[in-house]
Write a structure and sequence with these properties.
Elements (H helix, E strand, L loop, with lengths): L1 H18 L1 H12 L2 H16 L1 H23 L2 E5 L6 H4 L3 H15 L8 E8 L2 E11 L5 H4 L7 H10 L13 E10 L1
Antiparallel strand pairs: 1-4, 2-3, 3-4
The structure holds heme C.
Length: about 190
């Protein structure tokens, strides 16, 4: 009897949650999105104050730390993902994320503004209704210092990146392209 009850409850809450997609998405965005300008500002300040090479730790440590603080505060899974990875240990997309990243590329090619690209859905994650949300992270001018075409990078920066990330794929971007996405998994 027990498993049946559990199943019924689970199905019911999933259906109820599905109706709340808009409200849940709005609440998730309100909570999570302020971290995006925080990371970009931290990067801009670090590049301006210390130079690009010294700013590498900002993207390597400070960006993940700001995201970690948000994870601790919310209990949700939050990270950055990309199709072209610099740090595969942290930023490897799962199947859902791969599909959405490909969809973002198609939507951008069809004329949507990269900074407006986002996607949310309620999915069944191992029997638990889960809100998934992704927001594209477009390449701004400051990003080109470390993600621009390899031959345009400062030689010192290029050497530091190669030493830390020997299989770095995250170069060769132009302004306005999609560098990756912020991704949230929020169990309901
Ligand atoms: C000072 C150099 C530097 C600048 C400027 C920079 N990044 Fe990065 N970026 C890095 C490094 C280093 C990593 C790898 C971090 C790690 O080890 O987790 C990274 C990783 C990322 C990732 C995670 C995916 C991956 O490939 O590992 C995203 C997304 C990203 N950067 C986006 C941006 C965006 C968007 C900008 C501009 C707003 C930007 N970065 C500017 C150095 C930089």
């Amino acid at each position: 009897m027990k498993p049946l009850v559990a199943l019924a409850v689970c199905t019911f809450s999933f259906a109820a949650a599905a109706q709340d997609l808009a409200a849940l998405t709005a609440d998730t965005k309100r909570t999570v999105l302020p971290v995006v300008p925080k990371v970009v500002n931290a990067m801009q300040e670090a590049v301006a104050e210390k130079g690009v090479a010294e700013a590498i730790p900002v993207c390597k440590e400070q960006a993940p730390r700001l995201i970690q603080e948000l994870k601790t505060a919310t209990g949700w899974s939050i990270r950055r993902v990309s199709q072209k990875l610099r740090n595969p240990e942290r930023a490897m997309p799962d199947t859902w994320e791969q599909t959405v990243l490909a969809e973002f590329e198609q939507r951008a090619a069809a004329g949507e503004k990269p900074e407006a690209l986002e996607k949310s859905a309620i999915v069944d994650d191992g029997g638990r209704a889960t809100l998934r949300y992704m927001k594209a992270l477009p390449v701004a001018d400051v990003c080109l210092n470390c993600h621009g075409p390899a031959d345009s990078l400062d030689p010192g920066v290029r050497a530091m990146l190669q030493a830390t990330y020997p299989r770095d794929q995250a170069v060769g971007y132009a302004r306005g392209q999609i560098r990756g996405a912020l991704t949230v998994k929020r169990p309901l």
